[in-house]
Specification:
Helix content: under 10%
Shape: globular
Radius of gyration: 12 Å
Number of helices: 0
Largest sheet: 5 strands, antiparallel
Order of helices and strands: EEEEE
Strand order of the largest sheet: 1-2-3-4-5
Bound molecules: zinc ion
Length: about 70
């Protein structure tokens, strides 16, 4: 049995804001918006879904997570 609701928090990602728009950041750079909530790092091509980005405003903070 796999738990499909498990969120894998990507601690190497962060969130910044461009005006009022939250943007995921990786490698110190803004990510590119792909589609369906997915973003790609402009530097190392790593991909992430916003639900896994620490500090993303539309998700609930995980246990022990400091915003
Ligand atoms: Zn990166």
């Amino acid at each position: 049995m796999s738990n499909e609701s498990t969120i894998t928090l990507r601690a190497d990602w962060g969130t910044t804001r461009l005006g009022s728009q939250p943007i995921p950041v990786h490698c110190g750079r803004l990510a590119y918006d792909l589609d369906l909530g997915e973003w790609e790092c402009a530097w190392c091509d790593d991909r992430v879904h916003v639900r896994d980005v620490p500090g993303w405003p539309h998700r609930n903070p995980g246990p022990g997570e400091v915003r």
